[in-house]
User: What shape does this take?
Amino acid sequence: MIYIYYSYLSEENHESLLKNDLPKFLVDYQNKIKRYRRWQDAQLSLLGRILLFKGVEEIYMHNPHNKVIKHTKYNKPYFDDDLIQFNISHSGDIVVCALSDKHEIGIDIEIVTDIGIDDFKSQMTEIEWNNIVLSNNKKDSFFDYWTQKEAVIKAHGHGLTIPLKSFEILDNTTKINEEKYYLKEIKIDKKYKCYISLKTNIGEIYLKEKKIQTQ
Assistant: This one.
């Protein structure tokens, strides 16, 4: 089963989060959060950690604060000596966290904004770009592809060392080095695009979404 937790930024609740939630984490992480200049950046990182630990506690009945988060050489975070897989993404005012105890997972969320889409043509395959240009809503189509590609490389685990143009999204699937990846859209907020990616057919997996209210 795949679980998805998400939350929105809240300036009103920021001091409460720093007072009540930040002290639960390791001192090194507390210091990292305190070094941020903008409260938004600090809270985006902190909410990701809060969602992750809340999911581990509620779903798997583990004490997450006994767990050590490490990073691969490609900077993908993971729990040391644990089967729980997770991935975190944020954009705009939303943070999302996906968890599973069976599958390597990637999730990406992007706020749909007015950007120079032509600047990203080099990141798309010829077929993908033609689909974007010929679509009724070029901006929506572009962000669909972009979010899907980001979710795939996060599931793969090697990040941007995998060129986005090196694989093609077709009918919510793609391949990297003959490994097949499946994608599913997660509709959280109409202002955003969000996709999840796994090496397993996501159509066979129950997705549980949970909005976390900050206090």
